[in-house]
Specification:
Number of helices: 1
Structural class: mainly beta
Order of helices and strands: EEEEEEEEEEEHE
Strand order of the largest sheet: 8-5-4-12-1-2-3-9
Helix content: 10-25%
Largest sheet: 8 strands, mixed
Radius of gyration: 14 Å
Shape: globular
Length: 146
C-alpha cells in the first residue's frame, strides 16, 4: 500500500507527504471543498490506482473508489452525475490551480509562494515509475491534522 499523508491544509490548498521507493515527495492538491468535482481534493480513504495514458500528462494513474464517489471515467458504470472521474495521481504542475481534483508532487516545496518547485515533470515520472515498481497499485490517503 502506498500512503500519502496530508499534513497541512489552508484556504488555498491541501499539502502532504508521499514516501515511496526510499524517497519523500511534497504533494499539493486543491482545498477540501466536500469532494466537489474540479474544485476539491479527493476524500480521505483507500484507492485503486489504474494505469492511464493521459493525452496531456502521459503515463500516470487514475485514483478510483466508487464507495467515495470517485470513478475511473465519466461513463463508468454506476457513476452518478456528481461522481468524480479522471482524478490523476500525480501529474506535472507547480501551482495548486494546476490540480483540479488531482495530485501534484515534487522534491521541493516553496512555502512562501505556496507552490511546488523544481522539475515537476521529472518528479512525476519518477513517482509514477516507483508506483509501477511497487506493483500493489493501492493508495491510502490519510491526514495528520484536525
Amino acid at each position: 500500500m502506498i500512503e500519502l499523508i496530508r499534513d497541512y491544509k489552508s484556504i488555498s490548498g491541501t499539502h502532504g507527504t508521499l514516501a515511496l521507493d526510499g524517497q519523500e515527495w511534497h504533494t499539493i492538491e486543491p482545498p477540501d471543498l466536500g469532494n466537489r468535482p474540479y474544485e476539491s481534493c479527493i476524500p480521505l480513504g483507500d484507492y485503486d490506482l489504474m494505469p492511464y495514458k493521459s493525452p496531456k500528462y502521459g503515463d500516470c494513474f487514475i485514483m478510483v473508489n466508487p464507495d467515495l464517489n470517485v470513478y475511473q471515467f465519466e461513463d463508468s458504470p454506476g457513476r452518478p452525475d456528481n461522481g468524480r472521474f479522471l482524478c490523476l495521481f500525480v501529474h506535472r504542475g507547480n501551482e495548486i490551480e494546476n490540480f483540479v481534483g488531482c495530485i501534484g508532487a515534487s522534491h521541493k516545496y516553496d512555502e512562501s509562494r505556496d507552490r511546488l518547485e523544481s522539475s515537476t515533470r521529472k518528479a512525476c515520472e519518477i513517482v509514477n515509475a516507483a508506483v509501477a515498481r511497487e506493483g500493489s497499485l493501492k493508495l491510502r490517503i490519510s491526514h495528520e491534522f484536525e
